Amino acid sequence: MSNDGRQILEYLTLAQQVVFFALMTVCTYTDIAKDKVYNWATLPAIVLGLAMWFISHGIERVFLNSIIALLVGGGLFFLFFLFRAVGAGDVKLMMAVGALMGLQFLLFALLPIAIIGALMAVGVMIFRRRLIEGLKSSAKILVTLRPKKAAEGKPPLTVPYGAAIAIGSMWTWAMLLISNQLPTIAKP
After folding, report:
1. What is the pTM of this model?
2. Alpha helix (H) ranges present in the chain?
């Protein structure tokens, strides 16, 4: 690869990381402050992620990897959306993480995201003094595979899962960087 080609990959990798961290920061703030993950944040990130992988590698395995990651992240969280466990913004945020960072990163990020989400859920239940009720409701969903229903007279127990996605993704980014295994556009 020529020096110009390497330089383009370096610029695209920098852009990838900047967009990733900007998206994670914005979505954490908006999900905690406004209880929303906005389309104006996630949809451009999806397009930029796919465009950066396409520009750097064309229609190759690596670009397809980004598309597969988008579909895996979105598909998995769409199942949670069907059970009213997450919102549509959370689904699109996972699609953006996949499109930006690729399948390997997404797969590594799923466990930290789940752990952080679970800790946040328990924290919300404890804070609202509804731990037993929340645990029973969660167990019922797992056993019956039916979406949760809103309790009468009580506000729903909600977790800003977009924040859990962002924090888990940033944690994964740091752990992969430290172990020198961070997949980037320049090093898929």
Report:
1. 0.89
2. 3-34, 39-57, 61-82, 88-101, 103-127, 131-144, 161-178
